[in-house]
Design brief:
209 residues, alpha+beta, C8orf32 fold, seven-stranded antiparallel sheet, two-stranded parallel ribbon, 7 helices, 33% helix, globular
Amino acid sequence: MLLDRRLLLGAGIGCTALMAVVSLTTAQAANERPMFISVGPSARAPIGWTDFCAQSPRECEGRPLEARDVVLSQKAWKDLARTNKWVNDSIKPMTDMDHWGVVERWSYPDDGYGDCEDYVLLKRRMLMQAGWPRQALLITVVRDLKGEGHAVLTVKTDKGEFILDNQEDQILLWSETSYHFVKRQSQADQNVWVSLGDNRPAFATAASR
């Protein structure tokens, strides 16, 4: 199990020591939980993505790019944690029905309210504006323990795939979550979606939420 980064920071552990702990615990966790998820064939785009692209074509344009993972440096981890916390703290949760009067609508939470995919869109945009590669920031559809659909942001790094989630302030390795992973954007083309498989060992149980 990866250590809680917030506890480490609260205890006064410096960045160098923190990254050493992250590297060590990630390596240990790899023996129990895979760092990278299994990617399958192409899948249908989730409801809302096509309409979002029609309304915001600049957000979805662009030629296919070579797959790329982020090198998880000390600065990268701090930037990731800061962005995740700022969005989670700044945006208030509201369903699309209460917000817009429709079941599903993807949009940026510019008025301070949004649901799960809106949090994801904002985190993705902020990280891209900070210089993070689009190919490493993948909108991902999951199902929770109740079988309900949910959207998170998968960040692909050289130390594994980490999940940014509006329902969880702590950034977790994908295999530490309790989610069933369904599909996500392709690294090469953000308008292509691929199915996901759970390659966690049968004996390993996801972290409780």
